[in-house]
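Aim 2 progress update. The chain analyzed this quarter is reproduced below.
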Amino acid sequence: MTTSSEPKQKNIFMRILTMNTSSAKSGRSLPLWRQLLLQLLTLAIGFEVLFPILYVITLSFSSKTDRPSTLVLIPKEISFLAYAQVLDRPTANPVSFLELLRNSFLLSFGVGLVALLVAVTAAYAFSRFQFKARQILMVLVFIPLLMPAIGTSTPLYLLMNSFRMMDCGKGVTALMPLSVCAPGVTGKLLFNLRDSLLGVGIAMISGALPFAVWNLKGYLDTIPHELEEAASIDGADANQVFFLIVLPLAIPQLAVTFFLGFIGHWQEFALPWLFLTKPENYTLSMTLYNMTGQYASSIPWNRFAAMAVIVALPVAFIYIALQKYITGGLTTGAVKG
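Predicted structure tokens:
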């Protein structure tokens, strides 16, 4: 009896492990053992992703400025003191949190919007029109994507720094490099494009455009030409076809492109840190770096964590607001047709 029951038990065990857990009626089956393995792998990846987030959130709720000596993922106290201190005065610089938030929002939102408006027209031209040097221009647009962003900072710095407005005295104003003060006259600097949010925004737009053009061009290629031809037959001109037919169909990918540009420049640190020198022009990411001291013991860790959480919240809100379009934009263009 024992000998005959053992193979039967093994067969039941193997049947359970190899049973199909996929609800799909066609395609490959998904055995239970593979499903369990995938679930364990997903839990491990999820824990690895959530671990630093949980640690930072826990640290931000602490009333102590020193770093915990032990690993704590569940808050032992709920204190909003660090958040109140950050919102009141982030650093020793005489800049309020609202000013920092305004600078970051204007920079990231403006760069994302301007890059999107320019890129969608360029991508439509590359997708629909046949003109001379089209392939060469596409390659030239792609080349900046091959270079690290920090590698273009030096030429951008020199370019932006050459545009200055000087007060030459006696009511004379010089706009360099188009005009200069008279020989021997040392003018007073009124405006430096490099040391301004406008100059940083222009530099960021130059880095955001190549990706936006290529991303939108690939999506516009999937929109059937027959829709535009039918609109043209009905009497629509080129502008009406673009604004009334193409743009509404491209809204999901426009949302994806804007969102990726927004989060990339919301967290941008290198260019603002290199270009800007006035505290009133600082961004949230620059202020977060300024909160670090020379040694780890001098860092107010609870305020640093609270500032990191606050900086991350706008990105989460933007993603939730555009989630429907982002999901559609990431999946719709996967298959052409």
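The CA atoms of residues 136 and 206 lie 18 Å apart. The longest helix spans residues 97-128. These observations will guide the mutagenesis experiments scheduled for the next reporting period.
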